[in-house]
Amino acid sequence: MANFEIAVQTTLKNEGGFVDNPADPGGATNMGVEQRDLPNIPIRELTVAQATEYYLNAYWKPLYSSITSQVVASKLFDLGVLFGIGTAVKVLQGVLGLVQDGNFGPISLSAANEHGDAILPAYKNAMNQRAVNVVASNPREAMFLAGWQRRIFS
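^ that's the sequence the OP posted. Answer follows.
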């Protein structure tokens, strides 16, 4: 079964520390958490424990712990942080041949577990195509594409 602690370590590494890129519509972030996500905590002072708790409550969906492939669960979680949970789930559902409703429920869980680690390459390719489509629709996001792709294929 998938372990949140393993998944979140990858995401925290991918997100890095405090960043305030004026081109990023999310504004200032620390470990990927935006100030608006935790308005009562100065984002520059966010601790790893606070970020971890935030990700557990906001991004780790209940059924993720029942995914038998840690690499699939970790990638789904990480790309949910990067692109939004609904997008990450919809793309996985598409790869699994399911209705793409963005809700990771029992049907999605069963299909993911049936395919196990083997679904990961197709999922990464589909997420890459999604990232390319984002840039095609919004060229100002092009500066982020290489970083997104490194993260998708990591």
